[in-house]
Amino acid sequence: TQSTWGRIISDNTGSPTPYLRRQSFTLAYREIAMSEMFETYEEDYCAYSTAISRKISDLPSQTREKGAILISEIEKDFSGADTSLKQMEMELRSLPPSVKASLQPKLQRFRGDVDSLRKDFKRVKTNFSSGAARDDLFAGRSTGEDFGGASADHRARLLDTTDKLRSGADKLEAAKRTALETEALGADIMVDLRSQRDTISRARNNVRDVDDNLTKARKTLTNMARRVVTNKLILGFIIALLLFMIIIILYFKFKN
User: Fold this and answer.
1) pLDDT at 35 (0 to 100)
2) Alpha helices, DSSP H only, in the chain?
3) Average pLDDT for residues 199-221, to the nearest whole number?
């Protein structure tokens, strides 16, 4: 007798059943969808990386005010690039090992590129801040005493604005880190839930197989019980017939 698992895997000709073909199609479609999501996050990262490289090149030629705005934009782009890399990493966890092995080096290369851009940004930012401070110092010396107070007040407002921008950027970065950690935790929970769902699905299939086997066993026992009753009736009929024949023989014997 062919088992239930055998019926699921193949039919009488040995070819895959529609159930297995549907499962294979579903897995292939899921892999394609995950790969497309990874490519989407990769495009976002490339856009952020290109913008960061361009803005770092433009920073030395900017004025102090425009440079501060450009620095804030670069920091936001770095945050966006980190988010894209985190998304790619989480998407990579859900991909099959064969696909993951081909995409993992690309993700590591992207992280190396971001680290290199950060070093360049830190160097250019330091040089820009030093040059801006030197220009302010020379400007303060050349304006004379009449404009000394106004220049100092202007520098104080600029410093205060810069501090507020830096504080806001730090808070935004902390909020994004918290969101990414929460998202990573959610992704881990989804992976655990998917694993538990597969376990429950296998257990349900096993229970269905056991139920089928119990049904077959019940039918077999019922047929055996019917045969036992039938055999008993036949045996009783034969015994009764033999007794009847013995009585007839004895009757004619004693009569003669």
Assistant:
1) 66
2) 4-9, 18-58, 64-93, 97-143, 148-255
3) 88
Q: Is 96 left (phi over 0), alpha (psi -120 to 50) or beta?
A: beta
- The answer to whether the beta carbons of residues 77 and 52 sit under 8 Å apart is yes
Q: What is the pLDDT of residue 131?
A: 61
Residues 6+ apart with CB under 8 A from 55: 70, 73, 74, 77
Query: What is the C-alpha to C-alpha distance for residues 58 and 63, in angstroms, rounded to an integer?
Result: 11
Residue 161, token pair as written in the block: 């604005």
The tens digit of pLDDT for each residue in 125-142 reads 888 877 654 555 444 444
Distance (Å) of CA 42 to CA 92, 111, 179, 182: 12, 12, 20, 21
* Residue matched to tokens 């080096």: 105
- 12 band by pLDDT with thresholds 50, 70 and 90: very low
Contact 52, 78 (CB under 8 A): yes
Q: How far apart are CA 121 and CA 182, in angstroms?
A: 29
Q: Residue 136, SS3?
A: helix
- Terminal Cα distance for the chain, rounded: 63
Task: Provide the 10 A C-beta neighbour count for residue 37.
Answer: 16
Q: Name the pTM for this structure.
A: 0.45
Helices 64-93 and 97-143 sit at what angle, rounded to 10 degrees?
170
With tokens 């250019």, the residue in question is: 124
Confidence (pLDDT) at 154: 64
Q: Is 145 helix (H, G, I), strand (E, B) or coil?
A: coil
Q: How far apart are CA 95 and CA 21, in angstroms?
A: 20
